[in-house]
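To close the chapter, one final illustration. This time we ask the reader to focus less on the individual chains and more on the assembly as a whole: which components sit near each other, and how the overall shape emerges from the parts.
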Amino acid sequence: MEELKKRILKEAEVGEGDIIRVDMFLNHCMDVALLERIGKALAKRFKGERVDKVLTVEASGIAVACFTALALGVPAVYAKKFQTGYIDPDVYAAEVHSFSMEKSYTIRVSRRYLEPDDRVLLVDDILASGQAILGLLEIVSRAGAEAVGVGVAIEKATKDGGEVLRRMGLRVESLVKVERIEDGHIILGED
Amino acid sequence: MEELKKRILKEAEVGEGDIIRVDMFLNHCMDVALLERIGKALAKRFKGERVDKVLTVEASGIAVACFTALALGVPAVYAKKFQTGYIDPDVYAAEVHSFSMEKSYTIRVSRRYLEPDDRVLLVDDILASGQAILGLLEIVSRAGAEAVGVGVAIEKATKDGGEVLRRMGLRVESLVKVERIEDGHIILGED
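The assembled structure is written out below.
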């Protein structure tokens, strides 16, 4: 996705430990017109597949999930990371390890919103080590549902999440791939 | 908003302590086509006002904020409740008390995404005691920016948040008002 490549090269910042900051347009301050186009582009990649639901994890995946689901004409569900407000006690849960936070957390989806015959598209803003997606896959599996594939705006090929998921036989679509960081500069690959 | 009233009367559930569950279409499993119309309806209420940014709190406010911001043609920013992944150390922060959780938490917005001349529309899915909106107001004030008003999908008039905010001189627009709960039944008012 050329537009997203340009925005990354123009605005993204490289922080300590080669983290890539895109919070100026993707996941804190959100350019929602861009996010709408990201959603449409991800939906297009899975055109021809039956998708019943889009599933993501709060909070940074929600915008991408909403716009992808809107383009596909299906509901979006987000797994909860935190116990705030009411949460259904009857949930599918999975443990997710965060390497950046150096801790694990539980993600939960109410059993009411995943059914055994659902074909579920997993989406997120960024795919790095793939831990969050692996947690969502576990939840989809516990529900007896089927994962159609994984769609992300940005894949960090510097981490092995994409490779791990593809080796599991999953279709992984990323709109932009970050190949590597060289002296604080972001080098993008072909998607 | 007639469509939202109908959905509430048809699908919402009343739980312990008269909490209203709308997680089947609004804030866990999301009917994104409905949410898009909610965003358009909120944007329409503030037509004629200059709005530079839409501001909400993660996670349940993000979808409403995205679609309202899209309809207004401005960015959406969400305050972070949790320290996950990278967060700018240079933030505006406010303490928010959650009555339902019986604890307080800190919400944070990077200083880069609120500017002194910004006119900010605060949005959320549900307005009850108004604590989250009061926290956002504090952040807007710390940034030297101006709050245009508050837009929510559902206002629980059984709690005093809307009244408190209006008494402060704020314009509060809610698409549907829950007047009261009678024997487990939801009674809606006129918006």
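Chain A touches chain B through 42 residues (CB under 8 Å). The CA atoms of residues 3 and 34 of chain A lie 8 Å apart. With these observations in hand, you are ready for the problems at the end of the chapter.
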